[in-house]
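pls design
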């Protein structure tokens, strides 16, 4: 009997030692495991190491606590913005666990669509936030998924226009792009381009730093070395803007190169107040997931809502707006 008890104990301990290898799961903080008759909503984001997405998660958790009787929430994220396979796996896991809705900020506009088709076909309500899924791939997969989020091109154009007002016609600038297969990255690049074209300013170089601060630092340093006459760096998110700050400082160009970003994270707000960043765009990350969750709940509750997209606000943030 003692030996049998020992073996049972060993097996029990081994079974309890399993952990997910690459996801960040915060379901426990929002009651996702004991929903009762309440609908279960899964929020699947990109990297929670990025302040923008940790802010998004906090906003969603706060919303669920205010409406605890209406739904339960499971929050998931990936450790690396480029870990597409893990995000696909998270979609499959949430469907298998029986969630009623998935609100997702996809790491890639195309790669997530087949997994989301399976979710839709399984009867799960799916709402797309932050990064719009590719319309052609959705059509190929025979599904329609609403997008709830800002006009990234218009937001980037606002930032670019403000930067252009501080430059002269004929100046040259540099661009740090996001992941090129992400629709929001493409739209922000187009918004920057449109603003520079309108002002007669030339983009001397444009490279992808894949949303990452350290990669942006390396790439910005290289671009500044090749284009020392550049007057500004337009970064498609604030993490890359922070990387650009370090590159500009290392090159001794603090007063010569202006930097703009996109997302309005707290670190960049401080950088704006200190004069290290000129402007950014606020797409209200703390509310973006909430907008998507509310749309999913409307569908789950049988409300007669239009199947089209919902545009959410995006605002220009400068030193003046922060000091108001």
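designed seq:
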């Amino acid at each position: 009997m003692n030996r049998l008890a020992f073996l049972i104990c060993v097996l029990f301990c081994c079974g309890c030692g399993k952990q997910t290898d690459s996801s960040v799961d915060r379901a426990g903080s929002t009651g996702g495991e004991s929903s009762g008759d309440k609908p279960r909503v899964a929020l699947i984001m990109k990297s929670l190491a990025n302040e923008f997405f940790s802010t998004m998660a906090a906003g969603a958790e706060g919303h669920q606590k205010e409406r605890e009787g209406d739904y339960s929430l499971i929050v998931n994220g990936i450790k690396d913005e480029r870990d597409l396979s893990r995000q696909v796996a998270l979609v499959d896991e949430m469907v298998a666990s029986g969630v009623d809705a998935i609100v997702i900020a996809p790491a890639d506009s195309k790669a997530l669509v087949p997994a989301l088709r399976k979710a839709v076909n399984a009867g799960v309500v799916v709402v797309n936030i932050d990064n719009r899924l590719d319309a052609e791939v959705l059509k190929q997969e025979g599904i329609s998924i609403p997008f709830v989020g800002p006009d990234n091109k218009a937001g980037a154009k606002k930032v670019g226009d403000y930067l252009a007002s501080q430059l002269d016609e004929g100046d040259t600038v540099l661009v740090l792009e996001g992941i090129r297969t992400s629709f929001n990255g493409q739209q922000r690049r187009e918004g920057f381009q449109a603003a520079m074209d309108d002002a007669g300013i030339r983009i001397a170089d444009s490279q992808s730093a894949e949303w990452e601060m350290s990669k942006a630092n390396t790439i910005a340093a290289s671009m500044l070395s090749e284009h020392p006459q550049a007057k500004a760096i337009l970064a498609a998110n604030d993490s890359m803007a922070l990387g650009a700050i370090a590159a500009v400082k290392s090159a001794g160009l603090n007063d010569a190169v202006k930097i703009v970003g996109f997302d309005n994270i707290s670190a960049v707000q401080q950088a704006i107040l200190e004069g290290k960043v000129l402007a950014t765009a606020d797409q209200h990350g703390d509310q973006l997931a909430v907008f998507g969750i509310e749309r999913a709940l409307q569908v789950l509750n049988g409300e007669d809502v239009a199947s089209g997209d919902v545009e959410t606000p995006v605002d220009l943030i400068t030193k003046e707006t922060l000091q108001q």
